[in-house]
């Protein structure tokens, strides 16, 4: 049986208190097996980013436990959480978050300089199809190319897990498919567990497992027997 990269028990998050309290997660029990592509779907405000932030070590739960392999993130000190993020987690966001004054190579190098077991920045950029663009600045690259630099930056540290929050949200279908193909490659070639949060329900067809979220809770988990390639999914 596959081990879990993540499991959560009764994970609860409340922002604020009293009358203004927002219950973003209401006791989430979840298992994410290692090496899977998992798509998290749900309406705006249902708690997807909150879950991602907690299991990604960026935020803490109000109650409950979140395990990364056999380590309880809820019991870690801030220093241990930083170490966990640095060693194991790659993040990809909708709006790339690249440094405009640095080249593609330098943007990736920012991460590899502090990582435990990094790839060569140019190797990571070659993996996302940007071998010829390593010396370009973000403003000289298209949206899809910038997102691929962001993915190269996230994978160059050899992460155990890659978190992607709306990675294709700002992209057209052709470019979006190219980006999903890169995520699929990262999963297959590096064995990283890939967690994608999206509003695009059709992207669920490329996942091993689809988690449907509503109102801070899991409504349904679907395991896909057959996965589609990014080229095969509707947009
Ligand atoms: N820092 C915060 N302070 C107060 N409330 C917050 C905070 N962050 C999120 N929330 C609230 O928690 C709930 C869940 O938000 P979250 O961002 O996790 O949802 P989401 O499913 O990721 O939404 P979207 O798809 O729009 O990104 C929402 O009601 C949101 O307004």
Automatic annotation (TrEMBL):
Gene3D superfamilies on file: P-loop containing nucleotide triphosphate hydrolases
Keyword vocabulary terms for this entry: ATP-binding, Cell inner membrane, Cell membrane, Membrane, Nucleotide-binding, Transport
UniProt key word Nucleotide-binding: yes
SUPFAM superfamilies: P-loop containing nucleoside triphosphate hydrolases (SSF52540)
PROSITE patterns on file: ABC_TRANSPORTER_1, ABC_TRANSPORTER_2
Pfam families: ABC_tran
Cross-referenced InterPro entries: AAA+_ATPase, ABC_transporter-like_ATP-bd, ABC_transporter-like_CS, MacB-like_ATP-bd, P-loop_NTPase
Family indicated by similarity: Belongs to the ABC transporter superfamily. Macrolide exporter (TC 3.A.1.122) family.
Organism of derivation: Yoonia algicola
Location of the ABC transporter domain: 6-235
Gene Ontology molecular function, alphabetical: ATP binding; ATP hydrolysis activity; transmembrane transporter activity
Protein name: ABC transporter ATP-binding protein
């Amino acid at each position: 049986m596959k081990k879990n990269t993540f499991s959560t028990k009764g994970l609860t998050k409340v922002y604020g208190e009293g009358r203004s309290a927002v219950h973003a997660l209401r006791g989430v029990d979840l298992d994410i097996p290692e090496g899977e592509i998992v798509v998290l779907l749900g309406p705006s405000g249902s708690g997807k980013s909150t879950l991602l932030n907690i299991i990604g070590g960026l935020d803490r739960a109000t109650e409950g436990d979140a395990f990364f392999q056999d380590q309880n993130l809820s019991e870690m000190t801030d220093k241990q959480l930083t170490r966990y993020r640095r060693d194991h987690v790659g993040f990809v966001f909708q709006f790339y978050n690249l440094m405009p004054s640095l080249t593609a190579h330098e943007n990736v190098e920012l991460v590899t300089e502090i990582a435990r077991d990094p790839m060569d920045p140019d190797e990571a950029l070659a993996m996302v199809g940007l071998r010829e663009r390593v010396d370009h600045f973000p403003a000289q690259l298209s949206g899809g190319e910038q997102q691929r630099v962001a993915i190269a930056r996230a994978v160059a540290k050899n992460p155990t897990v890659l978190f992607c929050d709306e990675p294709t949200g700002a992209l057209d279908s052709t470019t979006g498919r190219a980006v999903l193909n890169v995520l699929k490659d990262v999963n297959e070639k590096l064995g990283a567990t890939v967690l994608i949060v999206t509003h695009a329900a059709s992207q669920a067809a490329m996942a091993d497992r689809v988690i449907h979220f509503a109102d801070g809770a899991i409504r349904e988990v679907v395991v896909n027997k057959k996965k589609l390639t990014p080229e095969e999914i509707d947009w």
